[in-house]
Write a structure and sequence with these properties.
This protein is an alpha+beta fold and about 625 residues long. The chain is built from 11 helices and 29 strands. The strands form 5 sheets. Strands 1, 2, 5, 6, 7, 8, 9, 10 and 11 form a 9-stranded antiparallel beta sheet that branches. The protein is elongated, with a radius of gyration of 43 Å. The two termini are about 75 Å apart. About 20% of the residues are buried.
Length: about 625
């Protein structure tokens, strides 16, 4: 049901309409005005007698500066605020009946606010917004800002104003009053004033204030215009014991460690898409009772399981053990990006790569390279690598273009098991690891069953340790900046909560939040060097093979396609196709002895197998 019109006593009606009507007729309704004034005085006397009969607190005993009304005298909100002395703030008001049947929803300062009969407001401040000036003869209105500099004088003592004019000291009569001084002499009745800066006629001032008030279970201070059509009564004296509970966001509790541990009730659950896939997240609903134990000092590591699409957040308290996995690189550009200052990198070729004339020799499976650094700038940038020979002292320096394809795997013989903190001290992120010993404190460690885990970035996001009141020992850690919701802290002391014996050390992330988090993170790894532009395709022979020439031909606009898979026949290919280099005298020649070819290939394969077994310890 909509709002109903409030019935206002005759003595409270504005007499401006009568003044305007009388002005048009050339006379003032003095008899009607006297009758209304006498009726108002009689009503005031009756109310005073009723208050005395009910042993109400007399007006002389009220709080100095309080409005003329008591809890038995409801006033319009505008009348109350205009008669309020700011020195007496804060004041507690009760919304009275007479305007709404049950309550109404107002949009106040952009926030939806429900004012129902019986609701309490704690007025904290009153700010003047503007003053509406009404010309008593023409009825026109003018809005004055609070910074208006004009001076006001009392209207001449003629017509009906001789009974309504308030007291003005002689100094104010001679020098004039500022806008705020004129409003400060409000005695509950409209007082005509003159202001040459506004117009020649008498003016009636109607101030409009912005009232800052607190309400029960409202997070923010409510800003209400004084012209809001509600009736209120002052209940400050009888409501001193009332506490206006203010909801908090979980993110606000982060800066209130002095109130923790505490018990709280969830008012509104988390909004927005899910963050974790844990079972405790859906239980964060309205009415749920929580225990907040304190802030977590642990840091986190963002991790992904390659090929599975699963993403995790590991706490620094995770007790599992890791073993480094060799990194894999697809192309020279990724190999250059994998270089870390002060760290040595050795790789083994896992896929054949064709050469480019005399400058770029072919690379074959099993070749061992040690990248040293970049040389040159722009399109001529090359990666300097040292190719190790059969003997440690043998080798050759190579300059590989960044757009060269191929496959490489890191050569490492580190079989040590690391804890999370120790691993991050030794190895820069990102890196690939494998969990070789699950966390013994977890009933089920999801990381132990994964063949590989890519650690991507370290995060220092603040977390709060919480638990449900029904299960105080089952703890979890909430990131308030990612998973925020409103709650109400319980009043009074809280007995020390039981310690959380089990906490979540591994949280699986939703895919949507994982990519959202990646977009917010600063670059956790250095971006790869820019790929140089490739020349246009030219000078290629049939089948994409480049003819032999003293000067290397231009590179194709696309990466060279990988070699076809090797057939099962023992006649796999020539040593040249595998990148094996024979004696200088045999270069460019093909042996006619099939038996010799088989034996050479078989020996090479055996050597490669031995090298790979030495590289991969598991």
């Amino acid at each position: 049901m909509g709002p109903r019109k409030r019935v206002v006593p005759a003595a409270q009606h504005s007499i401006c309409a009568g003044w305007r009507a009388a002005s048009s007729m050339g006379l003032w309704p003095e008899r009607e005005l006297a009758t209304a004034r006498s009726r108002s005085e009689r009503q005031a006397e009756v109310k005073a007698e009723a208050r005395a009969a009910s042993h109400a607190v007399p007006l002389s005993a009220e709080c100095p500066g309080a409005p003329r009304s008591t809890a038995m005298e409801p006033l319009s909100f505008q009348e109350y605020i205009c008669s309020l002395d700011p020195a007496t703030l804060p004041r507690i008001l009760r919304i009275c009946s007479g305007v709404y049947f049950q309550g109404s929803v107002y949009e106040i300062s952009g926030n939806e606010c429900c004012l129902s009969t019986g609701d309490l407001l704690k007025v904290m401040a009153v700010v003047l917004q503007k003053v509406v000036c009404e010309d008593t003869e023409t009825g026109q209105t003018t809005e004055l800002p609070p910074t208006f500099k004009g001076l006001f004088q009392p209207a001449p003592a003629w017509g009906p104003y001789q009974t309504l004019r308030g007291h003005f000291p002689e100094g104010g009569r001679q020098q004039g009053l500022t806008l705020h001084q004129a409003l400060g002499r409000w005695d509950g009745r409209l007082q005509p004033l003159l202001c040459p800066a506004v117009g020649p006629h008498a003016l009636l001032l109607r101030p409009v204030y912005e009232v800052h008030a607190a309400m029960h279970l409202r997070r923010d201070v409510v800003k209400i215009p004084s012209t809001l059509e509600v009736d209120v009564e002052d209940v400050t004296e009888e409501a001193q014991h009332i506490h206006f509970a203010r909801p908090l966001l979980l993110s606000e509790v982060l800066g209130m460690e002095d109130v923790l541990p505490a018990q709280a009730e969830i008012l509104e659950g988390p909004a927005g898409p899910a963050v974790f896939k844990s079972a405790w997240v859906p239980r964060l609903q309205r009415g749920q009772q929580l225990r907040l134990h304190g802030c977590s000092r642990a840091w986190r590591v963002l991790a992904s399981a390659p090929g599975s699409g699963r993403h995790f957040l590991l706490s620094s308290t995770y007790q599992g053990r890791f073993r480094l996995r060799p990194r894999q690189f697809t192309g020279v550009q990724e190999l250059a990006a994998g270089l870390q200052p002060g760290q040595r990198l050795r790789v083994v070729v896992t896929r054949d790569c064709e050469g480019r004339g005399d400058d770029v020799p072919p690379l074959g499976v099993g070749d061992r390279l040690e990248p040293r650094g970049l040389q040159g700038t722009g399109p001529s940038t090359r990666l300097l690598c040292h190719r190790h020979g059969e003997e440690e002292e043998e080798g050759r320096e190579l300059l590989l273009p960044l757009d060269l394809g191929g496959g490489f795997v890191e050569e490492t013989c580190d079989s040590k098991k690391y804890g999370l903190a120790e691993l991050l001290e030794r190895q820069a992120l990102p890196c690939e690891v494998r969990v070789v010993a699950p966390d013994p404190g977890l009933e089920r460690d999801a990381l132990g069953a994964l063949p590989a885990l890519r650690l991507e970035a370290r995060l220092n996001q603040p977390f709060l340790v919480g638990s449900f009141c029904q299960e105080p020992e089952e703890g979890f850690e909430i990131p308030p900046r990612w998973l925020d919701f409103s709650l109400l802290l319980s009043e009074g002391p809280v007995r020390p909560p039981a310690p959380c014996t089990r906490r979540s050390r591994v949280e699986e992330l939703t895919e949507a939040f994982y990519y959202q988090l990646l977009a917010q993170l600063p670059g956790s790894a250095a971006p790869p060097p820019p790929r140089p532009p490739k020349p246009a395709q030219a000078g290629t022979g049939p089948g994409g093979r480049r003819p032999s020439a003293p000067v290397p031909p231009p590179v194709s606009a696309r990466p060279a396609p990988p070699l076809p898979p090797l057939p099962a026949s023992p006649r796999l290919s020539t040593p040249h196709q595998h990148g094996r280099r024979g004696p200088p005298g045999d270069a460019g020649t093909e042996s006619n002895s099939a038996e010799h070819d088989y034996e050479t290939i078989d020996d090479n394969i055996q050597k490669t197998i031995c090298k790979m077994q030495a590289i991969f310890p598991f």
